[in-house]
Automatic annotation (TrEMBL):
It comes from Labrus bergylta. This is C-type lectin domain-containing protein. SMART domains: CLECT. Gene3D superfamilies: Mannose-Binding Protein A, subunit A. Residues 17-129, 124-241 form the C-type lectin domain. It comes from the Eukaryota. It holds the Pfam family Lectin_C. Keywords: Disulfide bond. SUPFAM superfamilies: C-type lectin-like. The keyword Disulfide bond applies. InterPro entries: C-type_lectin-like, C-type_lectin-like/link_sf, C-type_lectin_CS, CTDL_fold.
Length: 241
């Protein structure tokens, strides 16, 4: 998956890489989050080392700070959008963050490389996290084809934060009790069809049916928040990115 954003991205209003959209409109952090929640899912979290490396590679040529979904809570602890505590961040720039800075932005150009703490009244572009629930019910294969034709792919969920953000998108009465995600059982193991590594799992505790399914070989996310192996010919709603 190509995710490098060329420097010319700063001359356009929006540009997508993976599950993230760079929005070249300058706003304060809370305004940016409101915009993302209205048009997409939320301000972009980057909780895993793989996420952080991809963001770094994608923004090497950018010359502006850009908001990400990282903020200080009332107890002065850093949290991601999705409410999970942000621990073990290795990408702060030298000397960052300062005590009076409550939100985070990314910048990898020249000598200020890394994440920066930024004051709340700063006005800069931002990254939105973008998951889309389709209103048409399809089989797993049909959903995969639709996502690849009209978006990028059936979504993977690579962290607890991504699972929570996906869950927030499917809590509507008209959405089926479970929705297709890009999880498939091939050979003797589950994998993401977009090629991303399976580093996070959300099967129900004690569930063994998914370990060697005879028929239910496609993965779904339920409204309760866990993964479920399901019959691939069942028609469900689904999540693209």
């Amino acid at each position: 998956m190509k995710i490098h954003l060329q420097s010319k991205v700063e001359d356009v209003s929006e540009a997508q890489f993976g599950k993230h959209v760079y929005v070249n409109i300058s706003k304060r952090w809370q305004e940016a989050r409101d915009y993302c929640r209205d048009k997409y899912t939320d301000l972009s979290p980057f909780p895993t080392p793989l996420d952080q490396e991809r963001l770094k590679n994608a923004t090497m040529e950018m010359t502006k700070l850009a908001w990400i979904g990282l903020y200080k809570d009332k107890e002065q602890k850093w949290r991601w959008t999705g409410e999970e505590l942000a621990t073990n961040i290795q990408t702060w720039a030298d000397g960052e963050p300062l005590d009076n800075e409550t939100f985070a932005a990314t910048y990898w150009h020249c000598d200020r490389k890394g994440w920066h703490g930024v004051r709340s009244d700063t006005v800069i572009p931002f990254f939105c996290f973008n998951l889309m629930v389709d209103d048409v019910k399809k089989t797993w294969e049909e959903a995969l084809e639709h996502c690849r034709e009209t978006h990028t792919d059936l979504t993977s969920l690579n962290s607890e934060i991504e699972r929570r953000l996906a869950l927030s998108e499917i809590q509507h009465d008209h959405i089926t009790k479970r929705v297709w995600i890009g999880l498939r059982f091939f050979g003797d193991h589950w994998l993401w069809v977009n090629g991303e590594p399976l580093v996070y799992e959300a099967w129900p505790k004690g569930d063994q049916e998914h370990q060697c399914p005879l028929r239910k070989r496609c993965g779904a996310l339920t409204k309760e928040g866990h993964w479920e192996n399901w019959d691939c010919v069942e028609k469900l709603h689904f999540i693209c990115y």
